[in-house]
Amino acid sequence: MPFVKGQPGGPGRRPKAQTFARSIARAEKRIAASLPALIDNMLTLASGVLVEETNPVTQKTQVYRKPPDRQANEYLINRILGKPTERNDVTITDAWIFDPTETTHPPPTNGAAAPVLDE
Asked: Which of 26, 51, 97, 109 is the most exposed, fewest CB within 10 Å of its CB?
């Protein structure tokens, strides 16, 4: 099989998904088995966690609330359930549509005067 420009890998090389299929399946099985615990952990982390630490030098105990951190759990849950669809709204305010028959240049977008070109 010849090398095709724009295609990752070289001739005869198996795709990564195929190469690591067993490892990926094992990892997904482990994540799926612990999904209820991951969801419980995510709910706990979403509220923040109280942490109690003892300073080894002063022997004083300090209790504080750790801010929510759920990125690792979110990744694992998304791996099994799929990432939710994101909605992106796009608004074009200063649009210029290309017209091949038009001989003038597009209007400037920053409010400056259009450059004068010698023709």
From this structure: 97
The β-bridge relationship of strands 61-66 and 49-54 is antiparallel
Residue 65: inside a domain: yes
Map residue 61 onto helix, strand or coil: strand
Kindly tell me the number of DSSP H helices and DSSP E strands found in the chain.
4, 2
CB-CB contact of 13 with 1 (8 Å): no
24: domain range? 16-81
Question: What tens digit of pLDDT does each residue of 96-110 get?
Answer: 666 667 666 666 666
Domain count, the chain: 1
pLDDT digits (tens, 9 = 90+) for 29-72: 999 999 899 888 877 877 778 889 998 999 999 998 887 777 77
